[in-house]
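Need the bound structure for molybdenum atom, inputs here:
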Amino acid sequence: MTQTISRRDFLKLGAAGAGALALGSMLPPRAAQAARANGQLDAGGNGYVHSTCEMCVWRCGLIAKVVDGRVVKLDGNPEHPHSRGNLCPRGQSGLMNTYDPDRVLTPLVRMGKRGEGLFRKASWDEALDIVASNMLKIKEKYGPEAMVFSSTHNLSQVQFENLLYAFGSPNYGTQRSLCFNAMITAFLLTYGIEEPSRKYDDVEFILMVGRNMMEAISTSETGELAHAIDRGAKLVYLDPRYTKTASKATEWIPIRPGTDSAFLLAMINVIVSNELADCDFVKQYVVGCDGIQAEMRKYTPAWAEKITGVPAATIERIAREYAAAKHNALAHPGWRTSNFVNSFQTERAIATLNALSGNVLTPGGCLSAEVAAEGAGLGMPKQPPYPRVSALRLDGVSWKYPLVPLKLGVFQELRDAIITGEPYQAHGWFISRQNPIQSLPDRNKTLQAFGKMDFIATVDIIMNDTAWFSDVVLPEASYLERYDPLLPVDGKAYIRQPVVEPQGEARSALWIYKQLGERLGLGDYFQYEDEEDYIRQQLKPLRVSLEEVKEKGYAEMPEEPKGEITFNTPSGKIEVYSETLKKAGFSPWPTWEEPPAPKEGEFYLLTGKVAQQTQFGTQNNQLLHKYSDEPRLWMNAKVAAQNGLQDGDWVEVVSEVGKVYIPLLATEAIRPDCVYLTPGYGHLSKGLTTAHGVGASDSALHVTYTDPISGGQALSQTFVTVKKA
Ligand SMILES: Nc1nc2c(c(=O)[nH]1)N[C@H]1C(S)=C(S)[C@@H](COP(=O)(O)OP(=O)(O)OC[C@H]3O[C@@H](n4cnc5c(=O)[nH]c(N)nc54)[C@H](O)[C@@H]3O)O[C@H]1N2
Ligand SMILES: Nc1nc2c(c(=O)[nH]1)N[C@H]1C(S)=C(S)[C@@H](COP(=O)(O)OP(=O)(O)OC[C@H]3O[C@@H](n4cnc5c(=O)[nH]c(N)nc54)[C@H](O)[C@@H]3O)O[C@H]1N2
Ligand code: SF4
Ligand SMILES: [Mo]
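Answer from helper R.:
Posting the output first, comments after.
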């Protein structure tokens, strides 16, 4: 039997659960079979359970307190290297991710027009049959490449990828090109390492380029930075905004957006022309030490002052301080480095500065070149080889973007291919744990691409914007209600396990992908009985029982034999000079590339995380909502006054591709040529009763620009006008 839910009912469903905002009233009715969920709870459903946070991708270890079958408190697992006993505000509020009154608890099938919000409930059998038959129809008619798959990093992603590779599509969109493509490609090309880890024990001097560690939180690393600052390490922080990290820094440099690489190249100039680098290290390990002095000659601090707005004397002093700290100096690689079309060059300059300080390989140095072999030592279900894929990738990787690793992709470019039908037309889109309608730039373009699709299915836990525009919504169990594959960190494999039973019909992604795989005729790729069997197969080589891991929270992994660390580049050294870049037609040296700048009367539109929210998926969490500031457009107070605008005024913000309305925050905490908007707001889905109608979407304003080397989206390269609404 099916039941129709109208948009009004949807709203009603949400409103019924929302009610007063006291925590007590937010808790659900008793989740009856919680005790069965886990051997660690007593018969009444009380106890403590080890698991893993999923409120962001850092994945801290948690201990959940369960009373009467309900999660009542989440704390950090002291033994987990990512949490060390702490959870950030989002992690602590994670129980409301499970108890969100807007949870989707049965599969839904669209009835009205896309975006109208009319869905009916369906059984799993029916919903999975609809998804599978549409995918097969598209495959038969247009080939497997006509299905686009997209998902953002999560623990079951390995099985999402299994599904898409088995299906045979090359078209895979992840968050990476909106996030860290610039950093990863630059470190891969320079060091042959994706992302070197940081060691804060002895750090004396830290340079951070727009890495807002105190708000864009990684619990353990944020803590390490705080401790380093406490014991006197110097932090120089470059950001056009005065963030919480700026407030903890020794020195805040409000640099002009897009000009970081000029600042960094001038630092390199000072270091190499005054021979302040760690010469022994550079001679032994760096390719380019012969030519670097001549190459960097043009990038003087005086040259950089004109571009960045930072006084030459300041740049010179900071370069000397950095060099004086030798291998205890750290130029932080950053994380969301998707800011400008020259962000790859910023990251190449950061990679070079680290090489010059000799902080990698030098004992006690604060950069680590050790690469953790993710998942090595764990077992996997057997599966046949994947079919060969010969179709071009619609995101242009390889044929348009020769240096972007396949794994990273250029997600934002998929939409032009979908809209134009070139080089071929895509017809279907399968999405999981991702909200591309909000996270891709130029929301209208994403909606236009959705409009070209014959079929869209989304796996989510709530009715996010992407689910709202889909044809079928498959409800995943929340991270406190499900198993996922084990997470290996520092020699241990950590568990995510159900702390309480799933509500309604929600199921784990491991289950959903297997069911779908079987219906697609790909059952051989999903050789596990259920989630517990999957984890047992992972644990097999470790000779540890699942029961033991559930109790303890992790399994010890065998120690990896440590060979000599080599840089996985063509030369085996750190390539400050890169033949690979040269052969692909790019500058072999880190270089200055002038990015576009706003015209008179326009502002740089900045984005950046806040401590209480994650991306585009947590704004409906009632606890986080309660403790978040109302989103406003930051504008420099003097500039606001010059424009006749007052704090709290509603303003109209217009870019080349969109327009939004939002109240103004007049503040000294931002450069005069910039404005800033908190990301993640302005949700379109009316199925998010807490978040709908709050704030405005910066993605509606962002223009799509891609860095030609790394494929990263340039999220600070949108220019806007602002006037009173
Ligand atoms: N609370 C919270 N923590 C998170 C996340 C979250 O959503 N919420 N997300 C996680 C994820 S996926 C990521 S990628 C990381 C991101 O962490 P970060 O890399 O720190 O990224 P953002 O906060 O997006 O941006 C950082 C800063 O860059 C500044 N900026 C913009 N353009 C420029 C420029 O041209 N030059 C310089 N120097 N600065 C610029 C912005 O003003 C902003 O303050 O955070 C992770 N941690
Ligand atoms: N304007 C702007 N755009 C940005 C950024 C920015 O700062 N500003 N940041 C960029 C960065 S760094 C990143 S990493 C990306 C992130 O953007 P996305 O890759 O789209 O990731 P999220 O926004 O975290 O999407 C999370 C989705 O997963 C759903 N979800 C939550 N928990 C679960 C679960 O357990 N199971 C399932 N199946 N779904 C779940 C949420 O409801 C939500 O719909 O955005 C990028 N885009
Ligand atoms: S940093 Fe916060 S949100 Fe992210 S995993 Fe850790 S506790 Fe959870
Ligand atoms: Mo990210």
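Comments: The mean pLDDT is 93. The radius of gyration is 25 Å.
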